[in-house]
């Protein structure tokens, strides 16, 4: 039963990572929105999560959740910094978006009224929690 619960949690984590990866590819490649530097760093953690967790599921290796949790927490740290910039909690002079490019504060950078940096943070935290849940009952 623990194995099934672990596989389900890992599958859900993979779905979140895959969905987030496909969403940012759509925004960048189809809509033509160039990401800011912090969005690029977040993608550097999200894209491998989709591959790593997918391979863990394919090979029925629940241990992949350990590595997924670490990657997700690192991505969440960058996303948290990004959210703090977005919310103005960090001085404005450190803004990540170039004046000539798209800004994460533009109205077209919101999904259901939620800014992309906040969605990234929520995704990373959900992936980390699901990966941790997948490890319950897994022997070391």
Protein described:
The structure is a single chain. This protein has one domain (2-134): Bromodomain-like (Up-down Bundle). It is built from 4 helices and 2 strands, in the order H-H-H-E-E-H. It is elongated. The mean pLDDT is 86. A hairpin with a 2-residue loop joins strand 1 and strand 2 (114-115). A two-stranded antiparallel ribbon has the order 1-2. The protein is 67% helix and 3% strand. The protein is mainly alpha-helical.
Keywords:
4 helices, 67% helix, mainly alpha, elongated, two-stranded antiparallel ribbon, Disulfide bond formation protein, DsbB family protein, Bromodomain-like, 140 residues
Q: Find the count of extended strands (DSSP E, 2+ residues).
A: 2
Q: Give the class-level CATH name.
A: Mainly Alpha
Could you tell me the CATH topology label: Bromodomain-like
The H-and-E topology, N to C, reads as HHHEEH
C-alpha geometry = elongated
What is the beta-strand fraction? under 5%
Low-confidence stretches: none
Work out the helix count. 4
Our measurement of the CA-to-CA distance between the termini, rounded to an integer number of angstroms, reads: 18 Å
Helix content: 55-70%
* Rg over C-alpha atoms, rounded to the nearest angstrom: 16 Å
Quickly count the domains: 1
**Which sheet architecture does the biggest sheet show?**
2 strands, antiparallel
């Amino acid at each position: 039963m623990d194995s099934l619960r672990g596989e389900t949690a890992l599958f859900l984590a993979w779905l979140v990572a895959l969905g987030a990866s496909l969403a940012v590819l759509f925004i960048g490649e189809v809509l033509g929105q160039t990401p800011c530097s912090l969005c690029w760093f977040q993608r550097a953690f999200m894209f491998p999560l989709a591959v790593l967790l997918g391979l863990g599921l394919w090979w029925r290796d629940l241990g992949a959740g350990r590595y997924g949790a670490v990657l997700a927490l690192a991505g969440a740290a960058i996303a948290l910094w990004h959210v703090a910039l977005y919310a103005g909690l960090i001085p404005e002079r450190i803004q990540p978006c170039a004046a000539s490019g798209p800004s994460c504060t533009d109205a077209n950078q919101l999904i259901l009224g939620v800014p992309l940096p906040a969605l990234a943070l929520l995704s990373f935290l959900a992936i980390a929690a699901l990966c941790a849940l997948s490890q319950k009952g897994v022997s070391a």
